[in-house]
Structure formats: structure tokens, C-alpha cells
Amino acid sequence: MKDLSVEGLGMVYELPKGGSVEALHDVSFDLEAGRLLTLLGPSGCGKTTLLNIIAGFLTPTSGSVTLGGDPIAGPGQERGMVFQQGALFEWQNVAQNVAFGPRMNRKKRSETNELVEDLLSTVGLQGFGDKAVYELSGGMQQRVALARCLANDPEVILMDEPLGALDALTREKMQSLILKLWQETGKTIVLVTHSVEEALYLGDRLFVMAPRPGRIEREYELPFAANGLHVDPREMKASPEFIEKREELLSLIWEMEEQIMGHEGGMA
Amino acid sequence: MSVLTRLTGGYGPGRKGAGARKTVTFGDASEVKGSPSWSLFSLLFVALVWWWIKRGPDPIINDRTFPSMRQTWDAFFELVDRGYRRVGLWDHTWASLWRVLKGLVYGVVVGVPVGFAMGLSNRLRGIFDPIVELLRPVPPLALLPLFIVWFGIGEGSKVNLLFFAAVWIMVIAARAGVLGVRGSKVHAAYSLGANRWQILRYVILPNALPDIFTGMRVALGVCWGTLVAAELTGTTTGLGAMIFAASKFFRMDIVVVSIITIGVIGVAMDLIMRFLERRLIPWRGKG
Known about the structure:
The complex is a heterodimer. By secondary structure, chain A is α/β, with parallel strands linked by helices. Chain A contains ten helices and ten strands. Classes of the chains: A alpha/beta, B mainly alpha. The interface between A and B is medium-sized, with 28 and 23 residues.
């Protein structure tokens, strides 16, 4: 198991009309293997940029990211990615989507088939292998995306608002599934979300990020994810401790939003 | 269910459908599906007009200008049985079809790789862009004189002309297919361990297939339309050649049979392409 280490990360986007935006400023943290980190913050705070740098899709302007001591220079299958939606291959059926990674690695067909069956039942889609992905609901599609990502047995799973397009009820079910997968597989997960409740419920660590320049504003160590599967999720989300943290985070984010609005108002 | 409803497959007057309880349907695209009964009516009306202009011993329009339905009907069977200038109707049709298919296949074989290159590399996009943009708007027939000099008056110039008609359409379609791939799909594939070749083969190609197929449908139609003009010189076979030869002798019945054949085959080709599309690319528009 490998720890993820982020050192002095900076990212500056040059604007086409001149000037630049500092999407990330001196972001540093260490994430021990097996933790579930949620990134929360208003839009423009650089959380997706951070995720894309860890995934290897972007090269940072300064600083470095290492996984188990090895620097990250590009995308790699030890870092799996789950996108919001639309990243499944609609020309392949469910089983073929899940088998994509092993197939690219030229794994034995019989082993892959077994693995795919296992993963489909892990995410609650047993018997759906032959279905076209576009025949499935949004929640089921995200289950396929999770299974596809797990098929390569990555060290780290990066999730970019994976539940953002789902309705509230499906979203709660999927949150429980993510917790279950995290606890059963012991994978390191970094999850970007817009939902305060989701960040609190899933994150065993939580970073609140702030914009202009994008940075980590506050860090939390949270108890909820560890107990998440033993307690009824609704009960947990209604507990005084949860509500207290939720309100704290909400007011923090509200403050940031007000500052952004004030800032923009001042510029106008 | 009335007889009319059954005949028209549930559309047209008296239909019962999902829209039966909608209060407003004007402007609702899902409610406009055509009406087979009205289509039948429109065909019958055309036939009626045709009959009317050719009625009686001294019709409004004479035989040198337009044939009667009866003459056209007879000409059709004459062409099927004995052919025109000893070449049967189906042989003429097949000669035309074969040229179009050859032109289309060459257009696809050349156009798709060029379109892919333009969608994947800045340098290749730069190299091909001026050529494609300059030649794309040129009507293929404008090049016929050149092609006759280069490839001879026979098959060569015709097939090359059809190739020219098809290739730009295929380039643009393939390029659009490549550029239309969602970034997250490519990123997902990289994260799953795919290399560049695998990205091309397993992500970009299948993602571009619907656009390529649409291009083929359009190109087929354009080639079919260009063909007749291309066949006006240098050949004795093909529907275009038949029209030209027959018109010299005012055999308007043969001209009309050829025109109807061209139309029917055009429709049939499009139906076949749509059928293939449904079978081969069921994921179109579902991404």
C-alpha cells in the first residue's frame, strides 16, 4: 500500500486575453494509504485541478505529487478515475466496460470474466453484464464506473463528483456503496464533491478548499465514515455532531461565497 | 380499430397514441411522425395529375415532351425484357451502382484516415486544412474535363469523379467524429492502462463510427446524384448514359423510367444504410 504525497503544488493558468489565474497555491498534504479524503469548496477553488494533477492529466506549474515515493508524470492505472457521468463506453456492454482495463493489459480472458462477475456482484449489478450501458439508470451507470475502476486493482481511486448527476435518493444509496467498497477494499480514495453532507458522511479526512488562489483552507479528521456502515445513514446525518459540523462547514463556505461576490462587485 | 387506422399503422386520422391526452401538440416534435395515409394520398394525386395531362387523343402535353403512364409502364417492361441498345435495365442500373460503390469505398478508404489525422494532430490538421477547405466546395462536375484528360474517357474518370465527390464528405465526417469524443472517455481509458494505439482503436474509432456512418449516407446520396451527369459522356452503360441516349431520340418514356429507377434506388440505398446503422451502431446518440 502506497501513501500519496503532495508537495508545494501550484498551478497557474494563463488566460488567452492576458493575465493569469492561480488555480492552486502551495498545496501540500500527505495522505496515508487507505484513507478516504473528500475535497469540498466553492467552484473555482481548484479541487478538480488538484484531482487532475494527481490523476496525471495535468502537469503542475510548481511542486510535485508522489505515490509511494514515485513521482507522478502522467496517467497510470495505479490511480483509477471515476467521472461524474458519460465516461462509460456506450459501444460496449456492461461486462465489456468493466473488463476494459484487464483487456488493455492483455489479461487472460477466463480470469477477466471471473473478475468481472465478482465485481458486478460487488456493486450490486449481478446479471446485468449483457445490458447496454445506456439501458441503465444513472445510478447503475455509476456502479459500472466503480466496477470498471476496481477491475485494475488501483492503489488510489480518484472520484470527480461521482454522484453529482444523481437524484437525492439514489445518491444516498451510492454513498453507502462507496463506503462499503472503501471499507472492503481498503483503497485510498480522493473524492471531489459539492455536497457538504456527502463530504462529511464519506470523508474520513476532509479538506475545505478556498478560491483565489485555490488552497486548502481548513482540514478535518472525521469519525462518520468509519461508523457509516454500522449506523443507519439517516440517523447519522441527523445526529447532533453531524449537524454541528454541517452547519460549521456551510457557514464557512457561505463566507467564502460572499467574499467572492464582494470581490467581483468591487471589480465591476 | 378502424380499417384506415390499421392500414396506416396507427397514424393519421383517428389515431390513438401517447399524445391522446395532451392538451397542446402544436410545436411538440414528438407528436409529428408523418402520416402514411396522407403520403399515399399525395402519390395518388401525382398519378392523377399525370393521367390528366395525358388524357384523351389530343393530350395537353405531347409524347415528345412527356410520356403517358401507360407508355412508361410498357417501356419499363421492354427495358427489363430486351434492354436498351441490347443492355438490360438491370445491367444499366448495376453499372451505375457499381461505379457509385467503388467511388464511395475509395472515398471512405482515403477520407477516414485523413479525417482522423486532422482530428488527432495539429501538424496534419494544418497540412490538410487548406486543401480540404479549398476543394470541398468545388462541384465534382467542374473537374470532369481534367479527369477525362487524366484518367481517360471511360471508367477511370467516372470512378475518380465519384471518389472526389465522396472523399471530402468522409474527411469532414471522420474529423467531426474524432473531435466529438468526450475528454472524460479518453481520460478514463488512459487511467485504465490503455496506450495511444488502444485509445485510437477502442475509444476514438467506435466513438467516431456514428459520424462516419452519417458521412457515408450523405456521400452515397451525393455520389448517386453526381453519377448521372458523369455518365453523359464516354460510356454506353449506366442509367445516366441511358437517359442521354434516349433523349436524343425523344424516347421520353425511357428517360422517365430511368429517372424513376434512380429515385427508387436512391431511396432503397438510404433505407439499407439506415437499417445497417441500427444494426451496427445501436449506441448512436446514447453517449
